[in-house]
Amino acid sequence: MTQTSAQSTAALEALNLTKVYGSGNTEVIAMNDVTLRVSRGEIVALLGPSGAGKSTLLTALGLINPPNSGRIVIGGTPVMDGPRALVDLPAFRRRHLGFVFQKANLIPFLNATENVQVALEINDVPPRAAKRRAMELLDYLGVADRADNLPDALSGGQQQRVAVARALANHPSLILADEPTAALDSHRGRQVMELFRKVAHERAAAVLVVTHDHRSLDVFDRTCEMEDGRLRGTLEASTATAQTLA
Amino acid sequence: MNLATKDIRHNFGRFALTTVGVGLLLMIVMGMGGIYRGLIREATLLVERIGADFWVVQGSTRGPFAEISRVPPILEDRVRGVPGVASARRFVSHTIQREFRGRPLRIVVQGLAWPDDQGAWLPLVAGRSLGRAHFEMVADRSLGLPLGERVKLGKDVYEVVGLTSGMVGSGGDGLGFFTVSDAQSIQFDLPGDAIRLDRQSRRARAEAMDVGRVQPLLLERSAGMSSGIPALGPPMVSAVLVTLEPGAEPHAVAATIASWPDVTVYSKQQQKDLLLSGMVDKARRQLGLFRALLIIISTIIMALIIYTLTLDKVHDIAMLKLIGARNSVIVSLILQQALLIGALGYGLAYWLGTFAFPRFPRLVMIEAPDLVQLAAIVLGISVLASLLGIWKAVRVEPNKVLS
User: Fold this and answer.
1) Which residues does chain B have with pLDDT short of 50?
2) Given an 8 Å threshold on Cβ–Cβ distance, is A122 in contact with B323?
3) Residue A127 touches partner B, C-beta closer than 8 Å
């Protein structure tokens, strides 16, 4: 398979996703008939004001907050049909998904290498091979020199890089990131966004990033905007950047 | 990668303190078992060591240890006449408390039938067994009397000629071995005034009777030494110990002696059972209940600690679940920590016990079967204590990581 054909394969297809919280007078439609497609090797930004439903969409796609209706297909495998799981969700998550959040959420009692290694060992990779791959990833992300440090001893940017390494550990077809640069300064924030672009393009992973940071939109192949639970539209990156500058 | 040990290394201080606390509790649980074993050992030690097949005691009593027993010394000769009996020995046992060098001295006085029984069966750690009919004693080390020490008991002075170790009575007081006559002298020692008053009292009783008035010589005799009055027998002994001839039929010998209406006969095992079911039983139940309470308390404390440690890790557990960790990974993390606390606490309890228990005033015996039993209990309470934490952990949702 060539790079071009790999990139054209849909890594994620979300079809008519709806999520409703509460009922009657307290009913809130957090996500309303959302359809989204992200290809392998593509990095997509999800924009929108607070309460637009971005995180609800992300957690639904991350298989930790099932939708009320709609379908989710990841890497060609139907995963959710409404609230019904079609696969073993924990197993699917560890093999096909990677997560990065605003906070790095590193496990405080494991050093940088072990934080990556644990994701591999959970996926039944033998310890020695897991350690080797963890070191490779830390090296790839430029934090190999902090491999033996506990999270407390790492800067915010270094922690986020380790979190990205952990997300990449099992060669996921889809990486979901929820405001990964919110806790970083603009310089480090841009570095992380560029890292995602590098990962998407070099490793043929689909990357969906929820962000408020309009300064880094040029990094993305595409941006999507949500409002009141609906996906309003999709723009090519160059258009989105131009609108932001205007 | 072992997540449990990584977490422990990261929170070593708290884990170490928890383990020390659990270890101290388990040491007390271990000690309770040891005290119970010690009680049994001390209660049955003499019966075990003295080498008697039967104990002949006062009729309808459970003496000489569980209650007072008094039999005439001539019973020894009667018992010797029973077919199958190799030897019969008088035995005296009573407890005294005297003042010695400004401190109280409690001795369980044991009278041995000199010269047949010179205490050759005693487990001596220093000196020798009794070598004279009078004024010698073999003392247990717990009495604190060194070899060669001279102790005044009653009107006589006794020299410590031998030392034993671990020979104590059911009350934990050290045993002192004397000849029967010396033991009786100590038991029946009276001040001179008391003896004179007793003699005067006998004379007064005789004077009040016709025979006393018509026979002045009898009045003289009644006011004299008690050993000179035929109506007054020699001092009673506590029991007569019987050793059977090789090949003798124990049931037949016991049946013969039991047919005498003035005595009761117990086998060695029956005598031990009397001690255990009577004197030790309540202490055993008390220690057992206390031990059970401590085990329950240990379980609750361990459960609360494991639960708190789990609460601290809720976010990490959610993260592990988010990246696809199976429940078995999470359960293993908590269970291993609980087992490690239990195992290290147990080891610490044993180690501390080896220093602490020998300093206890009474014997604390830690035996292998009790250690195995406690290990099984610790395993059980560790698993039980982890259940609350495991219950909390398996209910953690992966999306908790977002909060």
Assistant:
1) none
2) yes
3) yes
Q: What is the 3-state secondary structure (H, E, C) of chain A?
A: CCHHHHHHCEEEEEEEEEEEECCHHHCEEEEEEEEEEEECCCEEEEECCCCCCHHHHHHHHCCCCCCCEEEEEECCEEEEECCEECCCHHHHHHHHEEEECCCCCCCCCCCHHHHHHHHHHHCCCCHHHHHHHHHHHHHHCCCHHHCCCCHHHCCHHHHHHHHHHHHHCCCCCEEEEECCCCCCCHHHHHHHHHHHHHHHHHHCCEEEEECCCHHHHHHCCEEEEEECCEEEEEEEHHHHHHHHHC
Look at the block and give the residue holding tokens 């959710």: A80
Q: Which of B10, B319, B399 sits opposite A105 (nearest CB)?
A: B319
Residue A165 has what pLDDT? 87
Q: Is the bond preceding residue B115 a cis peptide, omega within 30 degrees? A: yes
Ordered domains of chain A (ranges, CATH): 3-245 (3.40.50.300)
Using a CB-CB distance cutoff of 8 angstroms, which residues of chain B are in contact with residue A101?
Answer: 401-402
Which chain B residues are within 8 Å of A100, Cβ to Cβ?
none
Question: What pLDDT, on the 0 to 100 scale, is given for residue A4?
Answer: 40
- B157 pairs with which residues across the strands? B152
Torsional class of A22: left (φ above 0), alpha (ψ -120 to 50), beta (otherwise): left
Residue B392 backbone phi and psi in degrees, to 5: -65, -45
**CB distance B101 to B170 below 8 Å:** no
Residue owning tokens 């997509």: A44
User: A37 is written with which tokens?
Assistant: 């497609």
pLDDT of residue A236: 62
Instruction: Inspect the interface and report whether the beta carbons of A93 and B1 lie closer than 8 Å.
Output: no
Chain A residue numbers with beta carbons less than 8 Å from the beta carbon of B316 are 107-109
Which of B319, B326, B330 is the best mutation test for A, with the most CBs of A within 10 A? B319
> pLDDT (tens digit, 9 = 90+) per residue, A133-154?
999 888 888 888 999 999 999 9
A118 in reach of chain B (CB within 8 A): yes
Predicted local confidence at residue B254, as pLDDT: 93
Which of A57, A116, A122 to mutate against chain B (most B CBs within 10 Å)? A122
The encoded tokens of residue A114 equal 């072990």
Q: Does A126 touch chain B (CB under 8 A)?
A: no
Burial class for A2, CB neighbours closer than 10 Å (0-12, 13-18, 19+): exposed
User: What pLDDT score was predicted for residue A107?
Assistant: 92
What is the CB neighbour count within 10 angstroms for residue A67? 25
Q: Chain A contact for B132, CB < 8 A?
A: no
Residues of chain A with pLDDT under 50: 1-8, 245-246
Q: What number is the ipTM of this complex?
A: 0.81
Alpha helices by DSSP H, B134-174: none
CA distances from B245 to B52, B116, B222 (A): 12, 16, 44
Q: What pLDDT, on a 0 to 100 scale, did the predictor assign at position B160? A: 95
